[in-house]
Amino acid sequence: MRRQVFARVGGALFALVVGAVMLGTGARLVRAEECSNTFSSTYELIQRAVFENKGCTNQVCHGEARAGGLDLRADASYDALIDVAAATVPGWKRVVPGRRDLSLLFLNLAAKTLPGQYQAPLRPMPLDPLPALSRDEVEAIRRWIEAGAPRTGVVAGTGELLNACLPPPEPIAIKPLDPPPPGQGVQIRM
Fold first, then answer.
1. Closest CA to 50 of 115, 130, 128
2. What torsion, rounded to 10 degrees, do the Cα atoms 69, 75, 79, 85 define?
3. Given this model, what pLDDT does residue 190 score?
4. What is the pTM of this model?
5. In contact, 127 and 1? CB cutoff 8 Å
6. For the packed helices 104-113 and 135-146, what is the interaxial angle rounded to 10 degrees?
7. What is the tens place of the pLDDT at every residue in 147-177?
8. Which residue in 12, 51, 68, 159 is deepest, having the highest Cβ count within 10 Å?
9. Alpha-helical regions (H) of the chain
């Protein structure tokens, strides 16, 4: 008798779990089809969801005033970030593709959102009174940087983190390192 009751309860629980998974999957499919917040690349999404929507591009910050020499407006931000020396923290670059730990952008943002885990070399961003980014926003920037900080293309999972629709991710080409000087080591290409 106990086995029959357990089997029925276990079977019902299994059906509930499977139903929830199916419903969750169906909900994501419908959401993607009805998405009105669509972007062509992860960077385009970060530009809007973080730099523009969080106040980074306002006049007194990294907009017209170009605080710290950084312009985060859409027409200038990518070129102002990637492999560019930071004006405010000597020896640091704003974004080092593939290296969040060496990217001032990531460390400054993460230090305000997750102060127990990260420390900004100069100060956490955005400055008060602007609120910290959400954990999902910081995670999207981390994934983007660690995927090589591409201008185009989609980094897996960033659309979900920033509540937007992106095309399916495809392999992202990462710029190879410069070859070593003649007679000094080798360069392996993938």
1. 130
2. 10
3. 62
4. 0.73
5. no
6. 160
7. 999 999 999 999 999 999 999 998 877 777 7
8. 159
9. 2-33, 42-46, 77-81, 104-113, 135-146, 158-161
pLDDT by residue (tens digit) across 66-116? 778 899 999 999 999 999 999 999 999 999 999 999 999 999 999 999 999
Report d(CA 28, CA 32) in Å as an integer.
Answer: 6
Which structure tokens are listed for 59? 């006049």
Say how many C-beta atoms besides its own lie within 10 A of residue 104's C-beta: 24
Q: Which residues pair with 38 in a beta bridge?
A: 165
> Which burial class, exposed, middle or buried, applies to 48 when counting CB atoms under 10 A from its CB (0-12, 13-18, 19+)?
middle
Length of the chain: 190
- Residue 161 to residues 143, 176, 184: CA-CA distances in angstroms? 10, 28, 43
CA distance 108 to 94: 10
- The first and second tokens of residue 154, run together, are 């989609």
